[in-house]
Specification:
The complex is a heterodimer. Chain A is an alpha/beta fold. Chain A has two domains: about 210 residues, D-Maltodextrin-Binding Protein, domain 2 (3-Layer(aba) Sandwich), CATH 3.40.190.10; about 100 residues, Periplasmic binding protein-like II (D-Maltodextrin-Binding Protein, domain 2). Chain A has a six-stranded mixed β-sheet, sandwiched between helices. In chain A, strands 7-6-8-5-9 form a five-stranded mixed β-sheet. In chain A, helix 1 crosses helix 11, helix 5 packs across helix 6 and helix 12 runs antiparallel to helix 13. The two termini of chain A are about 25 Å apart. Chain B is of the alpha/beta class. In chain B, helix 1 links the parallel strand 1 and strand 2. Chain B is elongated. About 0% of the residues of chain B have low confidence. The chains are: A alpha/beta, B alpha/beta. Chains A and B meet through helix 3 and strand 7 of A and helix 3 and helix 4 of B.
């Protein structure tokens, strides 16, 4: 006599249409969740603030978020202080900076700092650059990149928030002169003829965490085994995304209208891009899945530098969000 | 003589025009000053700077929220006129609001007691709108069911040369045997018949 299988645990998981969400979308498409006793409903979310609040208050049980978001949520930045739990780093790298064709040409000739100085001298308004969200790796990466170019992100340019899928159109419409965004929206911007990608963010191992799995704290407490299974399934999907043939397949899967809704040939360049050392530009686990609090510290530092966090603010609650113990337990489970 | 506090100004932003307009009308009727915007292309921080609302109500999932939050997150554009409804004692209200699909931003220093009734109205309105939508979906699903059942009946009558009551009885029996809904079984019958037709037309 066989024992009936335990009833599947049902959960709602949110994602934003980005290639970074691939492990989640691939796991669902391949039935990996069902195999692990999880019945998952995916919800495509149009805004980061929405995904944050819906996860914080349990409308969603979990979501793909930019790495600093759950840290900021614990600190009450931009929203109510609600703890979430991060037991898995989903992706590293993958972001890029795209400039309009005009700005791209100018900066290639004169450099960005000189271009900005010339505009100021001519009485032109400051350049406007798009980022996807205030609390995001994109915002912090763009600030660091601007500083490297001798540009002050607070006084030399205007930063503006634009949702990732709207970036390329904003560039074409001239609402922004450039932007920092994740895949595939740099390539899409270039493919639309709106501009050129001028820089890709490097992800040297161990690399800065890009997207994480953020889980509603109450759900995590109530369902430790399901949470563990969820982490394990997503590491499996991430490993599957480590090979080139699988990434080619993934492009077909991600393209569908209920997932990213972007043609596969526009997803492939970002999926297949490697850095000079041959590492994936957008990595799904080769460079590590473990949420090490040491990797959270630079993100908190970036919040301080961006003026989002007071220098003296206590960040203990934020560091407690990252749970390497949950990751370790999940991958140790047979 | 007691002074009445100045009327609060509320900015309602909703891509769902009908929902936003009705909410604005209800709040206006209750004595608030309301400015309502649909999800047009206006740059939200500029709208906020121009309208100077005491409170902003917006769909919890709207992409405009990310733009709105830059007022506090980028700290560049304006002197942070709006902050999220975020104090600890408001957690219950905000949880109910998020579940209903409403989010609210208020200017710093506005008393909780003045804000809560507004949020409550918005929650009730969003919920009401949601239930209307579900009802509408159910009604159109029922209509779709009836169409599918009629088609399935017609197909069965033609192929099996049976009368309408018998075709209907057959559909009901299929549904009962499979513990499925009549509409679903009817759709399946129609789909199967279409597939058979296709295969007969161009055999693989």
């Amino acid at each position: 006599m066989t024992t009936p299988p335990a009833a599947a645990i049902h959960l709602n998981i949110g994602f934003v249409p980005l290639i970074d969400s691939a492990p989640l979308l691939i796991a669902q498409a391949q039935g990996l969740f069902a195999d692990a006793g999880l019945q998952v409903d995916l919800s495509r979310e149009p805004s980061w603030a929405g995904i944050r609040d819906r996860t914080a208050f349990g409308v969603l049980d979990a979501a793909v978020m930019t790495a600093p978001m759950p840290l900021a949520a614990a600190l009450g930045l931009g929203g109510p202080a609600r703890p979430m739990v991060t037991g898995l780093v989903l992706s590293k790298g993958g972001n890029g900076i795209t400039f309009s064709s005009v700005l791209g040409e100018q900066t290639q000739r004169d450099g960005l700092a000189a271009t900005i100085a010339a505009r100021r001298g001519a009485g032109d308004p400051p350049l406007t650059l798009g980022v996807v969200f205030g609390v995001s790796t994109h915002h912090y990466e763009l600030r660091a990149w601007l500083r490297d170019q001798g540009v002050d992100p607070d006084t030399d340019v205007t930063l503006r928030v634009v949702a990732p899928p709207a970036m390329a159109d904003a560039l074409r419409a001239g609402t922004v002169d450039g932007y920092c965004v994740g895949a595939p929206w740099n390539h899409v911007g270039a493919a639309l003829g709106a501009g050129h990608t001028v820089a890709y963010t490097a992800a040297p191992p161990p690399g800065r965490p890009e997207k994480v799995l953020a889980v509603n704290a109450a759900w995590a407490n109530e369902h430790p085994r399901a949470h563990s299974a969820l982490i394990k399934v997503l590491t499996t999907a991430g490993r599957w995304l480590g090979s080139e043939p699988n990434r080619r397949l993934a492009a077909e899967i991600l393209a569908s209208h209920d997932r990213l809704g972007v043609p596969a040939d526009q997803l492939l360049p970002d999926l297949l891009r490697r850095d000079d050392a041959g590492n994936w530009h957008l990595d799904f686990g080769t460079a590590g899945h473990r949420p090490d609090p040491a990797d959270a510290q630079p993100l908190i530092e970036a919040m301080r530098q961006a003026g989002q966090l007071a220098p003296e603010a206590d960040t203990t609650s934020a560091l407690a969000v990252w749970r390497p113990d949950l990751y370790d337990a999940a991958v140790a489970t047979p | 003589m007691p002074t009445t506090p100045p009327r609060l100004k509320i900015l309602v932003i909703d891509e769902d025009d009908q929902r936003g307009q009705t909410l604005a009308a209800v709040l206006e009727a209750t004595g608030y000053q309301v400015v309502s915007r649909s999800g047009d292309d206006a740059y939200l921080p500029s709208v906020v700077a121009e309208v100077q609302p005491d409170l902003v109500l917006i769909d919890v999932a709207s992409p405009d929220r990310d733009t709105l939050e830059q007022l506090s997150a980028l700290g560049q554009e304006l002197p942070r006129p709006v902050v999220m409804f975020a104090r600890d004692e408001d957690q219950d209200t905000i949880a109910r609001a998020v579940r209903a699909g409403v989010s609210a931003y208020i200017t710093e220093g506005l008393a909780n007691a003045r804000v809560k009734p507004i949020i409550d109205v918005a929650i009730a309105h969003f919920r009401h709108h949601q239930s209307l939508r579900i009802e509408l979906e159910r009604a159109s699903a029922a209509l779709d069911d009836r169409k599918s059942i009629d088609r399935a009946k017609g197909l069965l009558m033609a192929r099996r040369r049976i009368a309408e009551p018998d075709a209907y009885a057959l559909l009901r029996k299929l549904a009962m045997d499979r513990k499925a809904k009549l509409g679903d079984v009817a759709r399946e019958v129609v789909a199967t018949a279409e597939r058979l037709d296709r295969e007969q037309r161009d055999p693989a």
